[in-house]
Specification:
Shape: elongated
Number of strands: 18
Oligomer: single chain
Strand content: 15-25%
Largest sheet: 3 strands, antiparallel
């Protein structure tokens, strides 16, 4: 898919999430009998607008969100018409206000659930999880990690075997890289061992085998079943879902080992590394298909815009094939993981490592655009995650976020009388600063990713 088409689809995806969020507020306000003055996609002066009944609909010039303007959002507002005053926001019972404000995030939560629930039926259960198979004698991880340990993250970065290996390889020796030199800074490795979660600091060691890299000295369990083959990829027509890869170029191992082999000097493009260029030589893949063992010659292709490495064009894993309750559980479990990580990252904004994980609307858009270029399924997963993140962030108890309005409505209910608008204004300054800080940090990170190693979309 071309970059322009992916960019347009990503923009449309964001618009749908924004409109859906604001539509939640809009419909709830109408149902509660409130007067809605304006429904706008984007902020700022309207490029075009149309008035229907008491509501003006339009599109603004600043593409950073949208809003619904409900009459009487300021409790100090005065109205000439008793009918307008009766339908003003702050003249409504607390429960009605909470329903109207909560409807926006609720729609985003619903979108995330529906997308993840539907995607669960075609999901692939990973067989390439970073589970330790064995630890090399004398390696940095010796006497620390054990066979069966599942590596959750390295330096806070999660992912598959390849992603974790790339993070380990970011560490550097203090001097010239030579065989056996130890990284100047240890990697923070979180592992799951049984029902316990443990954290270790392990200094990677440089090794000169193929490829030359920093390593912890662990071998992962094999996970080599082909789950899917991308259309028009190098492997299309040569590999099938269900094939089990036995070796590549005579080398046995797991997905990480095979990825290293595919990206070795023997298979790099002969000329410039541009998207679609073919490796200098084909990879010799031995595989088991049913009861037979066969050999396939597949020439890797370079993918620059997303993964930035040589690829064969197939994914490891096995079909999940869930029941309806299992699909719902998969969706809810995924939502909980994203929600807890989002909340933790924002709550630890002053932690330098966690701050690096923040992203802005720019990063969300760019990640979605890259995902669309890989496949529609990955793009829908990104939109589900972004929709969920929008709901979570909006529910933080600071004005002008939705959670701030809900919080002050609950305070009013507990006090038994309205909270002076002056106090809410003063408190909103804290929320406004927080929102600006999150946006500034996220945008700064995104600029670094755009000009550096990218967004890690795989």
């Amino acid at each position: 898919m071309s970059g322009w088409v992916a960019a347009i689809l990503a923009a449309l995806g964001f618009m749908v999430l924004i409109v859906a969020h604001e539509l939640g507020h809009f419909i709830a306000a109408k149902k509660m009998g409130m007067r809605v003055e304006r429904f706008s996609l984007f902020f700022g002066p309207m490029l075009f607008k149309r008035t229907k009944g008491e509501t003006t609909y339009g599109v603004g010039v600043i593409p950073l969100g949208g809003y619904v303007k409900i009459t009487g959002m300021n409790p100090d507002d005065h109205f000439e018409s008793p009918e307008v005053a009766r339908r003003a926001y702050y003249h409504q019972p607390v429960w009605k206000r909470i329903i109207v404000i909560g409807a926006g995030p609720a729609v985003n939560l619903m979108i995330a659930f529906v997308l993840l629930f539907a995607l669960a039926f075609g999901a692939i259960a990973s067989t390439d999880e970073p589970i330790v198979g064995e630890v090399e004698v004398g390696a940095p991880a010796a006497a620390v990690l054990e066979p069966g340990d599942r590596i959750i993250s390295v330096d806070g970065k999660t992912g598959d075997q390849v992603a974790l290996a790339q993070q380990v390889n970011r560490h550097r020796c203090s001097g010239r890289e030579a065989k056996g030199c130890t990284a100047s800074k240890p990697a923070v490795v979180r592992v799951q061992r049984g029902d316990r979660t443990l954290t270790y600091q392990i200094a990677p060691r440089f090794r000169e085998d193929t490829p030359r890299r920093m390593a912890l000295g662990v071998q992962y369990r094999d996970g080599t079943e082909v789950a899917s083959v991308a259309p028009n990829s190098a492997a299309a027509g040569k590999l099938r879902p269900g094939d089990r890869v036995l070796s590549i170029d005579g080398q046995r191992g797991n997905e990480l080992d095979f990825a290293r082999t595919i990206n070795s000097d023997a298979h790099v493009c002969a000329g410039n590394l541009v998207t679609g260029c073919e490796g200098a030589t084909p990879a010799v893949i031995r595989l088991r298909r049913g009861e037979s063992v066969r050999t396939a010659l597949v020439t890797p292709r370079f993918e620059k815009e997303t993964v930035r490495r040589m690829r064969l064009g197939f994914a490891y894993g096995r079909p999940l094939d869930p029941s309806v309750p299992q699909a719902a559980n998969e969706a809810l479990t995924g939502m909980w993981r994203v929600a807890s990580r989002t909340a933790t990252t924002i709550a630890r904004i002053f932690d330098a490592e966690k701050r690096k994980e923040l992203s802005s609307v720019v990063g969300g858009y760019e990640s979605t655009r890259q995902a669309i270029q890989i496949n529609l399924r990955l793009a829908l997963v990104f939109l589900a995650v972004i929709s969920l993140a929008l709901a979570i962030i909006n529910l933080f108890p600071f004005l002008p976020l939705d959670g701030g309005h809900i919080f002050w409505s609950l305070v009013e209910k507990v006090r038994g009388r309205p909270v002076p608008f002056r106090i809410m204004e003063q408190a909103s300054a804290v929320g406004f600063v927080l929102v600006l800080m999150l946006f500034a940090v996220g945008l700064s990170n995104d600029i670094g990713r755009l000009s550096g190693d990218g967004f890690g979309v795989r």
